[in-house]
Amino acid sequence: MAIFLADELSNLANRSLCIPSLSGHFDDVERAPILPSKPPKETKEMDENKSKKGLAEIYEDSSDKRLRSTRSMAAMLFKKIPLKLDALSHFHFAPKPVIEDMSIQVNVPALAMEEVAPLAVSDAAMFAPEEIFHGKGNIKEDAELTKEERKRRRANQKRRFRKLKGRS
């Protein structure tokens, strides 16, 4: 039995060692590929024509492009500051100025669009003096009246007098 085991073990050892070596399959660590120490040089194409702009102009253009957005944002903030200061101090003395960034409303009636008033002022304060106080009409002296106007005035006075006389 010992001989049988020894033969079996030797066959097993031969199979486990020979088959991977014949197929090229080993358990060794594979080496990493060697990378070049310097990056490959890029060949850049040189333009032989002379530049139409000077170096200062090129720098100026690039700085203008960078600062353009900052300037526009600062301008919008500066437009809003005086409006807020006017509203805080004396809104009824300074009307709200027109801002360039307004949108057009098509569905609004024309009279509603034309009427521009500060939000802090009520509708009653927007009336003209003639709309609040209705006088007796055109008050003229007797010398200024024509003959027809004098007759009309005299007839109205008689009519009023008769009404008052009829009530009492």
Q: What can be said about this structure in brief?
A:
Helices cover about 50% and strands about 0% of the residues. The chain has about 170 residues and is mostly helical.
Walk me through the topology.
Blueprint (H helix, E strand, L loop, with lengths): L1 H22 L31 H35 L20 H5 L14 H4 L14 H21 L1
Which properties best describe this structure?
single chain, 168 residues, mainly alpha, elongated
Task: Give a structural overview.
With 168 residues, the chain is an all-alpha fold. Among the domains are: 57-102 and 113-134, no CATH class; 140-168. It is 52% helix and 0% strand. It contains five helices and no strands.
Shape: elongated
Describe the biggest sheet? Answer: none
Secondary-structure element order, N to C: HHHHH
Low-confidence stretches: none
Kindly estimate the percentage of residues that lie in beta strands according to DSSP: under 5%
> How many beta strands in the DSSP annotation?
0
Give the % helix: 40-55%
N- to C-terminal distance: 156 Å
Helices, by number, come to 5
- Radius of gyration over alpha carbons? 51 Å
Q: By helix and strand content, what is the structural category? A: mainly alpha
What is the arithmetic mean of pLDDT? 77
InterPro entries: Mpp10
Subcellular location: Nucleus, Nucleolus
Region (Disordered): 30-61, 143-168
Biased composition (Basic and acidic residues): 39-55
